Amino acid sequence: MRSCTIRAWEWTHRWTSLVCTAFLLLLCLTGLPLIFHDELDALGPRPELSGVPSARGGRLLDAIIAAALGDYRTDRGSRGVPLFVGFSSDTPEITVTVGPHPAAAPAEMRLYSYNRATGQALGEVRGDGLMAVLLKLHTDLLLGLPGMLFLGVMGILFLIALISGVVLYVPFMRRLPFGTLRQGRSSRIARLDEHNLLGIVILGWTLVIGATGALNAFADPLTAAWRQRELSSMVAGAGQAPRLDPVRYGSVDRALAAAEAARGGLLPQFIGFPGGAWSSGRHYAIFFQGDTPLTSHLLTPALVDAVSGRLAALRTMPVSMQALMLSRPLHFGDYGGFGLKLVWALLDLATIRVLWSGLLLWWGKRRPRSQGMS
């Protein structure tokens, strides 16, 4: 009975590992430069900005939005409407997304960047650089939501492979002292010892990365469901109103001041304009974040009437959604400075080594059998 159980665990470990290994190698390879995305982005040709971070102050938002609408009209030859304003908690950079109408599709949107400290235009932001492609490849294999959900399933298989590997390692440990590398034996045994030792040393990290990666894969549909449910509830509490014509939009600065007065101590992350997926037909949806690297991933939405500038509703993110959002910085290791990023990179390289050695062990085991059949 015990031997049958061990064989079942071996079968589980082998096939869950094999199914997900190719995709995990891709994720590890693309994830390595993404760990240092801030540092790599800083090497680009963008001008060095100094001043107060845009989330903390600077030029009036209404003036910057007007400049973005002017740039859009120059580029497209037609009038546009503001869709989003995005803030930075690190630099004076602020972005304004403009489209032809309030419900514009992502392909119709144009993103303009400005220095909020000076009002200087920094140009249009295009998401077609190398880091943007690597991020898309890492999150959804360039396939959108289906690719994201597929990688979530691969993450679950990875967790099963890790758990089954631990179950198989326990009886192995009873025969050999921890850390034993049997020198002078066959190359296969040496590779097996390395695979087992390195795998158990980084087990805690791989479990965290596998779990948070799987959570992140399902984060977008879960966040969209929460956003829709929360906004519907907030709009219902504020009273239904017909969709607002963009010409009637009031001051964004006044709306932000009203929301900040009700929820001090937080920083604005972005503002969604009326009629879009992140707001109602009449309100500015202002999403606040914490002011630390970890709490910056927790959102607090506020609805402000776009005409009067009065606060209509304010909500706190539920605990379940907070846990989901906190899985993102934990996955990329970008909340503890450059030192933690180096640790994440070394552990990522060790994971690549474990995956590759496991693949070689499987191939080496099946090769004699296939040769004998020929």
Automatic annotation (TrEMBL):
Do you know which InterPro entries this protein is assigned to?
A: PepSY-ass_TM
Keywords of this entry = Membrane, Transmembrane, Transmembrane helix
In which organism is this protein found?
Answer: Novosphingobium piscinae
What protein name is recorded for this chain?
PepSY domain-containing protein
Q: Mind telling me which residue stretches traverse the membrane in this protein? A: 15-36, 148-172, 197-219, 342-363
**UniProt KW Ribosomal protein keyword:** no
Claim: Transmembrane helix is one of the keywords in the record: yes
